[in-house]
Amino acid sequence: MTHRKPYLPLVFWAKTQLASALLFTTLPIFPAEITIESKIPLGLAYDGQVLWIADAETRRLSGYDVSQKKELAPRTLNYDLRDLAYWAPYLVTVAANFVYVINPINGDLVDRIPLKGINDPVAIATDLHQAYIYNRADKKIHRVHLVDRMQFGAFQPEIAADIRSMTFYKGALWAIAKDGRAYKLSPTDGAQQSFVPLPEGCYGISFVDGELYVARPGQIRPVDFIEAESYVAAARRSFIINAEITLRFPWSEEERLREPRMLLRYSLLPVNPHQRVAALSSEPTIRFFRAEDGSHQAEAVLENKNNEKQRTHRLQFKATLFNLTHIFNPQTMKQYFRNPELPENVRVYLDPLRLGPAEKEKVENFRKEWLRKNEGKHPIFVIAALKSDTSFNDTLRCAALRSLGVPCRSMLYFDLSSRKTELLLQVYLQPAGWVSITTKYDPARPREFPLDNYQLALFSPDDIAVSPKPKAPLDERTALLEWRNIKSSAE
């Protein structure tokens, strides 16, 4: 891995802004939720006008007319219902070694399509001609041509938990698993492309005019999310934040007498797909301006002979946070190698860190060994290896990543639930941009980088610029800017 040339960094920013605008302006065609009688709504299928619901406990098939916004009279069937899919003009469900074809108008069983070796099917999705059937016995998705009644292969989906329900939408399979996520899967090999966190206890899944809907006991509800090249964001929360920041000036009395002007430049509250910040105000007033990367930047200036040691400001702002997971699927990973250029303002995070001789040797040994065995691999695998190695702390991990050409910096987060701050690492990975390595990151799932909607990014100590540089080393950069008395209230 090598240093890379700068490029225009506004492309990703424009995409995220567009995605954000779409999220806030998209209106569901249903109410916030629809009340249903079903306690175990395993199946959900949309035929272009009616959203059909299958209850596994009562064998009831019911419907909701989207255009008329009214419920249809339910029908109790004399055969089992599991998942549900639409195969024009019929509905289909699964039973041991069979696909049942149902007339949705009267609930009659139109046909039974035989299956071989699929003795515990629990989920079904259809495209124009074929069905995708999840068999709980072998944990594989089987492909069945419904017209020719032929089975032609199966694949293992890239999901650890069992699947409850599936649907096919825009060339991809979407599957609800028992771990509480809706996974987007490749219909050819089951590779995970992305996922959406869901409310508790979801069963059926379907798309209605581009909107994702899930069935839970007693209700059907929409799930808002944004899907981009490398992330899925959902379940937003908004807070009003009050806090204090204290700036500490590092210059000695001698430097203050000699220098005509001293400057401390800092960035706060980055704006990105995970985090939106609005209405930032300060008392006494600080003049903030928005940088290219969306962060709020400001300066503190001291004139010659100024003896001021520190300065405190009270801040207030609104923060909207999203459950966001950056996902590096195969297409996104290829994108990294197709766009080798780095923005100019990111290159600084490739500079070597100040380490002692033993630490330098440890980082250098890791760098050489990694390149010997893994040169050319995507950086997510370097991150997973470093995170798994407990002999590395975050400082050494940052140094090792930089030595391999991966920009890395620290970011201070505040958890609005536990009310604690934590210094985490961020890496710059195209096409995603800055990606955080939180405590939820699992090295066994190296392609996923999760953030929840209680994690508020405050500032990066590595972004603080001091001019002129003081003689005393700035080993503890967090001491230059301290967040205190953070209070939040949900909006």
Mean pLDDT: 88
What is the 3D form?
Answer: elongated
How many domain modules?
2
Percentage of β-strand residues: 35-45%
The helix count comes to: 6
**Distance between the amino and carboxyl termini:** 45 Å
The level of helicity is 10-25%
Give the low-pLDDT segments.
1-29
**Total strand segments:** 34
Task: Describe the structure in your own words.
Helix 4 packs across helix 6. Strands 21, 22, 24, 27, 31 and 34 form a 6-stranded antiparallel sheet that branches. Helix content is 14%, strand content 44%. The protein has helices at 10-25, 253-258, 330-338, 357-374, 379-388, 394-403, and strands at 34-35, 43-46, 50-54, 60-65, 70-76, 85-87, 90-95, 98-102, 109-114, 121-126, 130-135, 140-145, 150-155, 163-169, 172-177, 181-185, 192-197, 205-208, 211-216, 219-222, 225-227, 231-248, 261-268, 275-283, 289-290, 296-303, 310-327, 408-415, 420-429, 433-437, 448-451, 455-459, 465-467, 481-490. With 491 residues, the chain is mostly beta strands. It folds into 2 domains: 1-26 and 228-491, no CATH class; 28-223, YVTN repeat-like/Quinoprotein amine dehydrogenase (Methylamine Dehydrogenase, Chain H), CATH 2.130.10.
Topology (elements, then pairings):
Elements: H1 10-25, E1 34-35, E2 43-46, E3 50-54, E4 60-65, E5 70-76, E6 85-87, E7 90-95, E8 98-102, E9 109-114, E10 121-126, E11 130-135, E12 140-145, E13 150-155, E14 163-169, E15 172-177, E16 181-185, E17 192-197, E18 205-208, E19 211-216, E20 219-222, E21 225-227, E22 231-248, H2 253-258, E23 261-268, E24 275-283, E25 289-290, E26 296-303, E27 310-327, H3 330-338, H4 357-374, H5 379-388, H6 394-403, E28 408-415, E29 420-429, E30 433-437, E31 448-451, E32 455-459, E33 465-467, E34 481-490
Antiparallel strand pairs: 1-20, 2-3, 3-4, 4-5, 6-7, 7-8, 8-9, 10-11, 11-12, 12-13, 14-15, 15-16, 16-17, 18-19, 19-20, 21-22, 22-27, 22-34, 23-26, 23-33, 24-27, 25-26, 27-31, 28-29, 28-32, 29-30
Helix pairs in contact: 4-6
